[in-house]
Amino acid sequence: MNKFLTILNISVIVLFFSITNLLANDTYYIDFNKVLNESLAGKNAQNSLKKKLSSEKDKFKKQRDSLRKEETSLISSKKLVTSEEYEKKVTALRKKVSELQKNKQKSYNDLATQRSKARSELLKALNPIIKKYMEDKKIRLVIDKKAVLLGDVNLEITSDIMKILNENLKSLKIN
Fold first, then answer.
1. How many structural domains does the chain have?
2. Which CATH number belongs to the domain containing residue 40 in this structure?
3. Which residues, 6+ apart, have CB-to-CB distance to 4 below 8 Å?
4. Residues 6 or more apart in contact with residue 18 via CB below 8 angstroms
5. Average pLDDT of 31-45?
6. Does residue 50 fall inside a structural domain?
7. What does pTM read for this prediction?
8. Which of 38, 52, 44, 56 has the alpha carbon at shortest distance from 118?
9. Residue 76 resides in a domain
């Protein structure tokens, strides 16, 4: 019985090392964040979105400053108008502030949606590139670098994939 268990244990160990060796030879990893942030298409998309964000921030800052001036003017004219008229103007100002906040939130949500779509498009373009690379190099498994605890740097294919992606996709269309 002991001899049988020893043979079984050895078989399990051999099987484990065979599987580990098999996976090690056919498993590579890619840094998707690097591809998304540093590829030509990824950089262009990010720059475009940053410009839109900056433009939106400037627009909302101007509107906010205008509303603050209106508020200051309203406060200084409080004693010159009737309390009913003052309340009407305060209500109108609050409505404008609320509208500004809604527009600001909608704008930022739209930008987040555009960012998500750009990321999705880039990943969609990346999949066939990775698939062809895997076929050409006889790779069986590619995983995200985030999932790798420790790995040989020679197993990282990020730069190869980015080079191919940059040749095939210079930019993304962002609405």
1. 1
2. 3.30.910.20
3. none
4. none
5. 91
6. yes
7. 0.71
8. 44
9. no
